[in-house]
Amino acid sequence: MEKDNSGSFFNYLPEGCRMCYKGAKMVLFVTGVCGKNCFYCPVSYERREKDVIFANEKRVKKDDDIIEAALLMDALGTGITGGEPLLYPDRVVYYIKLLKNRFGESHHIHLYTALAPGREVLKSLRSAGLDELRFHPPPHLWANIGKTHYRDSIVEANELGIRVGIEVPSIQADFRGILSLLEEVGGFLNLNELEFSETNADELKKRGFVPVDDVSSGVRGSKEVAELLNNSRLHFCSSLFKDAVQLRERFKRIAKRTARDFDEITEDGTLVYGIIEGDGLDILKDAGVTEDMYSVMDSSIETAWWITEDLAEELKRAGCRVAVIERYPMKNGMPVEKTPL
């Protein structure tokens, strides 16, 4: 098994996950409507059972919002999720075609579903360009999944040329049916560490689940379930992965495209620069700072953090307020820290 610094481990990574490790997968949330009410569902109140669309963190109002989000992070692929995306199959097909037409066939698209779509829906998904389909059957069917409509759908998708897998939370259960079916079709098993969220905490507590420790949202014992399984195509994704790997790598990709000449990109993909509030432009010019190394805003000047630091005393004597800012790399990204000088 290979391991990473987030606690995830695998002996096989689907293509969608490989891109996720690079921070290169856009997340396209096509609806919050689902109706399954899984006790472990972590979807936020902002999105849960609401027919809303998001591209990463951006609310989608038009097609260009999706394209812009993909361009911003130089996305190599997209993961389509929800809610239950296939409650709106025409919408899913439309967005697959939109992305494939704009970015080409190499733009890898995977889809999550808790349904077992029939042949016609699967054919339309494949024709649109879907590369990978991740099924999420309910836990009470796992042991005997080979006798359910999920088996029919998984076998059908595989025969149509869609890469198939099952992605479920890592909880105590009888996985023999799932493992047997995946072996039959050469499919993969993605196990997500069960984790507490604002929306599922009460349900998890009712069932006796407790956190790993005081700082982790992961559930105690979830990782151990995955460690005991023996499957040739297994991937355990930890609760830390999103922040420790996926989000950080995505931020780095965005930062490379948005950083100005004077911005410093951190190891976390955030941007660091200096800010001068007040009339400090002449001081910058007198110090020989070139125009490419500062930006005049409405009520401030932004420049390299080290220039701000070097000129801090002179700027303050002139009545300016100076600080170093660290923020997310998107346009108008949220500040992480502001350090006055």
UniProtKB/TrEMBL annotation:
Protein name listed in UniProt: Radical SAM core domain-containing protein
PANTHER family: BIOTIN SYNTHASE-RELATED PROTEIN, RADICAL SAM SUPERFAMILY, GLYCYL-RADICAL ENZYME ACTIVATING ENZYME MJ0021-RELATED
Superkingdom, natural source: Archaea
Alphabetically ordered keywords of this record: Iron, Iron-sulfur, Metal-binding, S-adenosyl-L-methionine
CDD domains cross-referenced by the UniProt entry: Radical_SAM
Annotated signal sequence range: none
Limits of the Radical SAM core domain: 19-233
Entry GO MF terms: catalytic activity; iron-sulfur cluster binding; metal ion binding
A matching Pfam family: DUF8061
InterPro entries: Aldolase_TIM, DUF8061, MJ0021-like, rSAM, rSAM_sf
PROSITE patterns (alphabetical): RADICAL_SAM
